[in-house]
Amino acid sequence: MKLDHYIYYFFLFWYACGVILLSFDILPPALEWANVVFLIAAGIIGGIYFIRTYGPSKGFAISAVIVFFSIFAEHLGVEYGIIFGDYYYTQDFGPKLIGVPIAIGFAWLMVIASSHALAKVIAFKQHFLLYVLTGSLLAVLMDLIIDPVAYVVKEYWIWESESFYYNIPFSNFAGWFIVAFILHLAIYFIVHKDIASHNLWHNRMILVFILIQAMFILLALISKLWLAVIMTGVLSALVLIGYYFSLKRNAYD
User: Does the pLDDT value for residue 154 go beyond 80?
Assistant: First the structure.
């Protein structure tokens, strides 16, 4: 069995452990580093997906662009309040680069890989701009559930603002859209000739999207974050329905 398969099964195992520990709020302080391992493992899965789908050179290039560009964007947010708004991290997410945990860059890699896998099936055959917009909105959809749980429930970071949506500023979601738009546009220009290719890792990336959404929706449900649960639950279900019918439509084209 190849190393990438072992990494994938390790991610599934770590995910299962995380769901149990976080759902019952029994993660001991001594194991807080497990969050870093989870984020990095999820990002590596995204990187493997790009490499197995588009080849080593393009896959590594895409992964590196996502990690380093997202870290730079987060740096602007943490240091200057630009793009996302004013916030700061309260938890040690491991080694940092320009003041931003490297693990956050890997988290972005997972988000962009997931949204790319969905968007290229749902929208690419219509128009490249529709693909980029769809991928960007899917990334925002993931943050709509990630941020309330990470901020309100776990306090992994703190927002210094007020808003109707759990005091998470609109600028954060606008920033997510902008960053995701730039990254999906870059991906398109790198791989547009073979962007429709599918393989085992494509299916695994779709499963990662489902698992991540399900975990954060569950945590939000336990904490009674009803708006986040209902909104992201319904939208995620509609996305998966659209993905399913797009697969069927593409099969007959």
Answer: yes
